[in-house]
Amino acid sequence: MEHWYVYYKLPLAELPDVVPRVRALQATSGLSAAAGLQTRVDTPEGIATMMEIYPDIADAARFAQALEAAVAASDLPAAVRAGRRTERFRSL
Description:
By secondary structure, this protein is an alpha+beta fold. It contains 3 helices and 4 strands, in the order βαββααβ.
């Protein structure tokens, strides 16, 4: 199983607008029932680092396609889409 972490930075002032959009993406896309959303604690003033968490991914190729399609269909701002970075981990 893989665990995916998608992170990106955005102005702190945009957080109230972006959070519900990300939650909607996670809820309606069927990506992962256990999907999570966090923000970094120690960030520079005025900047938020967001982290989408997708645990227990059994089929990475299928999940990658589903995530890409969900982001493309979402109403996330263009800057958020462009700034997304994905890290993939596996339990030992």
